[in-house]
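Complex record, four chains
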Amino acid sequence: MAGRPTSTRRERGSLSTEDILDAAFAVAGTTGVDGMSVPEVAKHMGVGVTSIYWHFRKKDDLVRSMSDRAVRTVVAALPVPTTGQDVREFLENYFRQLRDVHRRNDVLTDLTWTRIRSYSLDSTHVLYHHIEVILEFMIGAGFVPLTAWNSFSTGYTFTRGVVVGERIQHLNHSPILRDTVSKLLDHDTMPILSELLSNDGIMLAMVSDTEFDHGLRLILDGIVASGDARLRSGRG
Amino acid sequence: MAGRPTSTRRERGSLSTEDILDAAFAVAGTTGVDGMSVPEVAKHMGVGVTSIYWHFRKKDDLVRSMSDRAVRTVVAALPVPTTGQDVREFLENYFRQLRDVHRRNDVLTDLTWTRIRSYSLDSTHVLYHHIEVILEFMIGAGFVPLTAWNSFSTGYTFTRGVVVGERIQHLNHSPILRDTVSKLLDHDTMPILSELLSNDGIMLAMVSDTEFDHGLRLILDGIVASGDARLRSGRG
DNA sequence: ACCTGAACACCGTTCAAGT
DNA sequence: ACCTGAACACCGTTCAAGT
């Protein structure tokens, strides 16, 4: 009652685009990026819907700005190589962190990897400058530029596959989950999978720690081998 | 004029769920799964909107049924191993086809890999029976079951990463595309990437043929090596 | 059992103001 | 320059019928 303002109109400048983005992320955090509506963001801030349309001409523009911030958030959470660091050690840590950032925040995944909005040139610049640094580090460790690029790409793409797969699995409430598994995999028609499920603890979605660890190790082995081959031929 | 029906009401049974699915896929093909609306599907069929709601209680149910059909379509398009076939040859072909099915039809990708609906137990059964056959084949060629599973998973997940990445890139109209690339990668701040782009024809999105081929080869090398190790230790 | 229009709540977006 | 409510077209869904 005491907190209720006399004037119903906000003062000019009281509504910054950053505040709107904060609210948008808050709403998207509970409803998902798809479920987020402009009216709900407005309600969350206690402003009229149309006020938001002054700062962002279309909902698309708002989502684009969210993606922008998301890219920077992800990049900021990733490790940077230190000179002299072991390549394998760095990359393993890098891809694990890449997976973890996304696991911690679904909205980031939606905005950068599954939603279909582009982000600004500025953020793209941030992203690729970050990759440039990693390539530089790998080349310093003996990689040919193209091999460094392809190697990094492989790990990056694999990690995206894992993250997206896990995202689908969760939002799905899919029958891939443990409890319903027995109903669909009887031992008679699928002996191998049903053995793997009961004895080796795999998950049908292929995106649990087991599969990620195995895939990452396989890829890192390959990457290191291609780097070593270079070093050997370079020396010989 | 002659084609215009006298009665405005459709006869009972004239509207099958399969017909609705056909129409839904047709609409989704032009508007995308996100853009598809129930009214538009109805208009496409020349029926009232509510008629569709008799067959599918919610739009969600309709999309779920679409996902169901999508899973079967994808599985049907994938190769099946023949006894005695070379494992590497089969897997390479398999993952290439997996990528190609999705490249040919974005709607399939949306429904099975980026949209967040589950599909029926029946379709899940179809999908995993199909994987069971591949595992059986790999085990027949000397793989330990768990290694076969993990190996297959790695290739599958990597391919999903490539497909999803390409899907984002296209729907993005992103600055990752060739023409705008020069604006964001000047040679001074990103010498390595700008060299790679001009000399080696890489694509920043990391999902072109170059990166897919390299990643797939790297992964297949690793898979074959793990299979061989088994054979050697089994013999030794 | 199957098809239909009217009706409702909600969303994206625009307009014509207000300060 | 910045904030606002009224208004519009469109969507998902329900209801109360029609045959």
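Note: DSSP finds eleven helices and no strands in chain B.
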